[in-house]
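[Q] Does anyone have a clean C-alpha cell version of this?
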Amino acid sequence: MIEPSESNKSSAGDDIRSQSVSPNYVANHRADVPTEDTLESPSHRYDTSTVQSASTYQSVVPRVEWVYPPDYEGHREEHGSIDISNVAIPTVNLEDRTNRSSRTLTIDASQTMVIPTIDGRIVSPRRCYVKIYGFRICDDSFTTKINPWILVLALIFTVTASIRGGLLHSQLQSDNLALTKLPSMIPSMAPSFDARSLNITEKLYIVSGDVIYDIESPQNKALIWILYEDEMYLAHESHHLVQRYVLMVLYYSMLGEKWTKNFGYGSDIDECDWYGIECKDSSCTTIRLENNFLQGKIPHEIGHLSRLERILLAKNRISGSIPSSMGMLTKLNHLSLFNNNLIGTLPDEMEGCKRLKDIRIYANSLSGSIHVFFRDLPYLRIARLDFNRFTGTIPSNLSNLRNLQHIDLEENELTGAIPSELGVCASLEHLQLNKNKLGGTIPSSLGNLSLLKSLIFSNNRITGTVPEELSRLTNLNIFSLRDNQLIGTIPGALGSLSNIFVMDLSENMMNGTIPSSFDSLDNLNTFKIHDNLITGEISEKICGFSLITMTADCLGMEAKVSCLCCTKCY
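[A] Here you go.
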C-alpha cells in the first residue's frame, strides 16, 4: 500500500481540524488493491498522537488509513468505471447514532488515502471501511455505520503513555480535552486497555452511570481499585464484582479512611470479612457501621446489593438524602439511619421495600410526606420518624399495617386529624404523636388497641372530650394529652387503667372534679392536672401513692384545687 506523501505526513499535526475541506479536493494518492493480510498489517497503522476535540462536539479522526467516499456509487453509475484519481473526496462527517452523545466525527480529507474495497469492486451493499490502528471505525455492515467503541480505543491508545506517567489529569486540563465528550462505555481515566478492563468497566457503568468517568468521584476511585489495585483480580463474570465495587464506593463516598474502624476495606481479603459487613452464601446481607464516624452521602449504588437485608448506619454524620435506589432492595427489613444529618423527602421508590419491618430514621432533617411508609408495608412493626420536619397528614390507609407495634411521629409538622383507622392496628403498643399541629378529636376507635402501652398526643391542637372508650386500654402505662384544647370532665371510667404510671392532662380546658375511681390507680407515679378548670380536692388515697410528680391549680388563697401532696402548685 502506498504511504501518504511526505508533505501530508509532515503536516499531520497542523492540518487536523474540524472545519470542512472543499468538496472539490481530489485525491492525489493511488493504492493497489489490498489483500486481507495487507489491511491488517501493522505497517499500515498510522500515528494518532494528534487528537483534538472541538468545542462544537465535533472530533477530527486523524490519518485515516482508507475510506470509501460517499460519491463512489454515483460516479460509478455515471461513468461506468472508477478512476480513483478523479474522485472528489469531501470531508466525511460520520454521525454517532449510539445515543451516548451528540457528536460529529470528521475525517480530514487531506490526511486520507482512498482505495476500493478488498476485491476492487464498489457495489452496494459490499462492506467498506474506515480503519485506524487496524480497527474498523466505520463499516457498512454496522447498523449505525460507525463503531464508537473502536474509535475510543484508538483515542485511548494515543494518551496511554501520558496516563502511565501519571500526567493525564494535568495534560487534559492544559489541552482542554473534554473527557465527557468521549463515548461513555470506556473510562477516560484508564491507564491501559485490555479486554478485562473493558468488560468490567462496561458492567460497572450499568451500576453507576457516567459518574464513573469523573476522576474525582468515589465511583472512579473504586473502579481503578478494582481494575488495577485489588489483588483478587476479579473477572467481569465474578459474582463478587458488583458487591465488592459497591462496598468500595461506600468506603470512598463516606470518607472511609477516617472511620473509627475500617478493617479490610481496600485489601485483598474477601469483602464479607470487612468490618461491619455480614454475608450469607457470599452475598452481603448486612451493613453495620453505626457510630463509626461516617461522613458524606449514601451512594445510590447501595441499591445494587440485591440481597441486603439490614442497613444500620445510625449515629454518624451522614448528609444528603435517602437514595431512591433503596427501593430496589426487595429483601430489606431493617433500615436504621437515626441521628444523622439527612435532608430531603422520602423517595416514593421505598414502596418497593415490601419486607420492611423496622425503620428508624428519627433525629434528622427529613421533610415532605410520610405516606410512602404506610401505603403497603404489611410486615412493618416499628416506624420511628420522630424529630424531623415531615408535613402533611397522617395517612388513613392503615388497614394493611396489622403488624405495626410502634409508631412515633413526635416533633414534626404534621397537620389534620388523627385517623380513626389507627384503631385497626391491633398489634400497636406505642402511639406517639406529640409536638405536631394535629387537630380534630381523639378517635374512640383507639379503645380497640388492647395492647397499647403508651398513648402520647401532647402539644397539639386536639379538641373535644376524652373518649370513655379509652378505659378499655388496660395495658396502658403512659397517657399524655397535655397542651391541647380538650374540654369536658375526666371520664370516671379511666379509673380502670390499673397499669397506668403516668397521666398528664394538664394545660387544657377540662372541668369537673377528680373521679373517685382514681383512688384505685395505685401504680400511678406522675399525675398532672394543672392549668385546667378542674376543682375539688386530691384525695388522701391518691396522695398515699408513691407519687414522684403531682401538679394541680393549688396555688394561693383562691386555689381551685386542694392538694396536700402536690410537688408543684400553679
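[Q] Thanks! Anything notable?
[A] The chain is about 15% helix and 15% strand.
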